[in-house]
């Protein structure tokens, strides 16, 4: 079946390269031969050509014919594309109600087939970002169109959020080719439109002409539209990330501009509900930046000074119930011998062991693939720390941690950790102390965001870029100190970062200024924040 899908995809690609006259001829020949699938592809691509020329009436006629033929042949991998195209054409023609119905049909057709259809040729084409993500985003945009009916507006807000949840789940499935990864959603008790006390859940959704902010508060969900040009906004986000990593003072300029777009529109709500923790569900380029480093232009304070900040890949994939118990046995692994060396790793492991009360240390030559496997096989651990070089690349093949004898792939890590899947106690926290995601790579950042889900842990802490070894040691140590002392994970990371900002922790090297965000901001808490 996968082979047939790949052959069909290649045939569709060839059809797409034809001229309009050739497509029209191919469609008519296919009809005469009762080849509904080829006819659907030909008329659909021809409709797309007319759409590009803004000849919407002709495009709609052809696209509806393509939809009919795809339904006849039962070709869902084509049907959803032409349903999506129908939605675009109706929207461009001003028929927004029927456009929304077309988008709903496209999403409903795509959901059950996306794993099977795209698994066949993952990585060979940019199919996900060309043919899947735009469907969910287009559907979401239509749902967020203003309406005067308050009951309908609230219903559509929930539908918009749920559509984004489907998109984020699909992105993880696209990055990690693992059918079981997102097969079951986490069980939780959060009502549809409310957040826990003193907590706000923020969905930033980047659309071509605006940024939509969906904010879920203890008493309901709100939608706030911020007019921005998508490409300009994306460029500012990327520049902010680059300036942070480069230790450039210009990062503050962009930190304030992005604060005005992402946080300021929510400020009155955050104050009214006495919000202390921000749960960010980032999309697209926003996965590349640490929200903690945004700066309030009025107070000149970093966001982390006012709020604990946590990142989740999707709320439906996050277990956000309070843990039954927060501490237990710890497995502490590290590699100080590397390129470059990480001389503070031994001290970091010892400090964390002293804080947690018990910890098995695997350092340098003892930190091997076999040794790690054996530890997980014979012992139940509630916290795991890995202080070693690692990379989250644009694909699972480029994503790994370094042991002394080999690379640890994400599949290896998942296999080791899930040794405990049949035990009652799940790993509460996985900390990756010296790893980084690919700079400026949104797919790599997507993989980093999904690490807790992939590894099968409730929470993960990792970094967006290479962090100074001493700063990592101090941040990780203070984070575990707060966590072991009973603070929430989000508050523990916030307090650790604030200690660097307020110079309560200083470097032994006087040339280093740990108040600069490049030292503390890249650390992200991912997943459960309690």
Task: Provide keyphrases for this structure.
530 residues; alpha/beta
> How many angstroms separate the termini?
44 Å
Biggest β-sheet strands, sense, barrel: 8 strands, mixed
Binned strand content: 15-25%
Mean pLDDT: 89
Descriptive notes:
Strands 8, 9, 10, 11, 12, 13, 14 and 15 form an eight-stranded mixed beta sheet that branches. Strands 3-2-1-4-7 form a five-stranded mixed beta sheet. The chain has a two-stranded antiparallel sheet with strand order 5-6. It is of the alpha/beta class and 530 residues long. The chain contains 21 helices and 15 strands. Strand 2 and strand 3 (220-227) form a beta hairpin. The two termini are 44 Å apart. Helix content is 49%, strand content 15%. Residues 120-125 have low confidence and may be disordered. It is globular. It has helices at residues 2-16, 20-32, 36-52, 56-73, 76-92, 96-110, 114-119, 127-143, 150-175, 230-245, 251-262, 267-272, 303-306, 345-356, 369-378, 410-417, 442-449, 451-455, 469-484, 489-501, 517-520; strands at residues 199-207, 210-217, 220-227, 277-280, 295-296, 301-302, 308-311, 330-334, 359-363, 383-392, 400-402, 407-409, 429-437, 459-463, 523-527.
Summarize the structure.
The chain is an alpha/beta fold and 530 residues long. It is built from 21 helices and 15 strands.
Question: What's the structural blueprint in terms of helices and strands?
Answer:
Elements: H1 2-16, H2 20-32, H3 36-52, H4 56-73, H5 76-92, H6 96-110, H7 114-119, H8 127-143, H9 150-175, E1 199-207, E2 210-217, E3 220-227, H10 230-245, H11 251-262, H12 267-272, E4 277-280, E5 295-296, E6 301-302, H13 303-306, E7 308-311, E8 330-334, H14 345-356, E9 359-363, H15 369-378, E10 383-392, E11 400-402, E12 407-409, H16 410-417, E13 429-437, H17 442-449, H18 451-455, E14 459-463, H19 469-484, H20 489-501, H21 517-520, E15 523-527
Parallel strand pairs: 1-4, 4-7, 8-9, 8-10, 10-13, 13-14
Antiparallel strand pairs: 1-2, 2-3, 5-6, 10-11, 11-12, 14-15
């Amino acid at each position: 079946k996968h082979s047939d899908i790949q052959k069909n995809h290649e045939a569709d690609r060839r059809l797409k390269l034809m001229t309009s006259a050739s497509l029209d001829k191919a469609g008519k020949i296919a009809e005469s031969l009762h080849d509904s699938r080829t006819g659907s592809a030909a008329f659909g691509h021809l409709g797309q050509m007319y759409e590009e020329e803004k000849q919407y009436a002709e495009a709609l006629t052809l696209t509806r014919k393509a939809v009919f033929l795809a339904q006849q042949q039962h070709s869902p991998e084509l049907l959803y594309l032409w349903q999506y195209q129908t939605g675009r054409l109706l929207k461009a023609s001003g028929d927004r109600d029927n456009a929304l119905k077309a988008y709903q049909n496209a999403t409903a057709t795509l959901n059950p087939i996306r794993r099977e259809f795209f698994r066949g040729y993952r990585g060979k084409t940019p199919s996900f970002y060309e043919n899947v993500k735009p469907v969910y985003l287009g559907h979401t945009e239509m749902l967020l169109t203003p309406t005067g009916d308050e009951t309908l507006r609230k219903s559509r807000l929930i539908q918009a959020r749920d559509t984004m949840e489907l998109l984020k789940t699909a992105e993880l499935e696209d990055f990690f080719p693992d059918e079981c990864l997102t097969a079951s959603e986490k069980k939780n008790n959060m009502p549809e439109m409310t957040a826990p006390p003193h907590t706000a859940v923020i969905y930033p959704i980047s659309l071509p002409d605006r940024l939509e902010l969906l904010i879920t508060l203890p008493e309901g969900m709100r939608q706030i539209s911020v007019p921005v040009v998508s490409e300009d906004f994306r460029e500012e986000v990327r520049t902010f990330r680059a300036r942070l990593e480069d230790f450039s003072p210009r990062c503050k300029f962009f930190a304030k501009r992005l604060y005005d777009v992402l946080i300021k529109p929510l400020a009155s709500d955050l104050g009214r509900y006495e919000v202390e923790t921000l749960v960010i569900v980032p999309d697209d380029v926003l996965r590349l930046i640490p929200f903690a480093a945004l700066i309030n232009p009025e107070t000149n304070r970093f966001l982390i000074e006012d709020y604990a900040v946590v990142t989740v890949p999707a709320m439906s994939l996050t277990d956000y119930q309070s843990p039954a118990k927060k501490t237990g046995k710890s497995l502490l692994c590290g590699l100080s011998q590397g390129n470059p060396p990480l001389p503070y790793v031994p001290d970091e492991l010892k400090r964390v062991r002293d804080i947690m009360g018990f910890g098995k240390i695997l350092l340098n030559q003892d930190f091997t693939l076999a040794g790690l496997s054996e530890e997980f096989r014979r012992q139940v651990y509630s916290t795991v720390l890995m202080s070693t070089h690692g990379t989250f690349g644009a694909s699972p093949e480029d994503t790994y941690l370094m042991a002394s004898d080999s690379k640890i792939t994400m599949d290896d890590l998942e296999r080791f950790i899930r040794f405990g899947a049949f035990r009652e106690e799940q790993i509460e926290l996985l900390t990756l102390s010296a790893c980084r995601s690919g700079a400026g790579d949104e797919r790599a950042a997507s993989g980093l965001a999904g690490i807790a889900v992939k590894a099968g842990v409730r929470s993960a802490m990792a970094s967006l870029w290479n962090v100074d070894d001493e700063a990592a040691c101090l941040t990780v140590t203070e984070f575990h100190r707060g966590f072991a002392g009973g603070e929430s994970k989000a508050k523990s990371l916030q307090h650790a970062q604030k200690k660097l900002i307020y110079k309560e922790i200083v470097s032994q090297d006087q040339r280093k200024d740990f108040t600069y965000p490049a030292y503390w901001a890249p650390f992200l808490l991912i997943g459960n924040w309690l």
